[in-house]
Design a protein that fits this description.
This protein is mostly helical and 108 residues long. The protein is 84% helix and 0% strand. It has three domains: 32 residues; 26 residues; 46 residues, no CATH class.
Length: 108
């Protein structure tokens, strides 16, 4: 029974911290305009994060055999193409992941 209360307390603390972090900007800024630095960072960080994920995901590619790099490059190209086509991140990610899995499991 102790584990249940411990888990419940941990979840409650995490929920309070998460809610506090979500409400903090509104409480700190009140009705004032958003600072220019925060607007700039909000515009730049998503692109920087995606770029970082692309570099991290492709850093281990080995070009010694086609099976080592072709699935990653084709799946990446599909993600980019589907995003440009539909502008839907979820569709692009799920489609690229499924395509990569098919390539790795059935083709290469």
């Amino acid at each position: 029974m102790t584990e249940v209360w411990y888990t419940a307390a941990a979840v409650a603390v995490m929920a309070l911290v998460t809610a506090g972090l979500r409400f903090a900007p509104f409480l700190l800024l009140g009705g004032r305009r958003t600072p220019k630095l925060a607007v700039y960072l909000g515009r730049v960080f998503p692109c920087a994060t995606v770029g970082l994920l692309v570099v991290y995901g492709l850093k281990g590619i080995s070009f010694t055999a086609a099976a080592n790099f072709v699935p990653q490059l084709l799946a990446g190209a599909l993600v980019v193409a589907s995003y440009v086509w539909k502008r839907n991140s979820l569709l692009s990610i799920v489609g690229g992941t499924a395509f990569y899995m098919v390539l790795v499991q059935a083709v290469f």
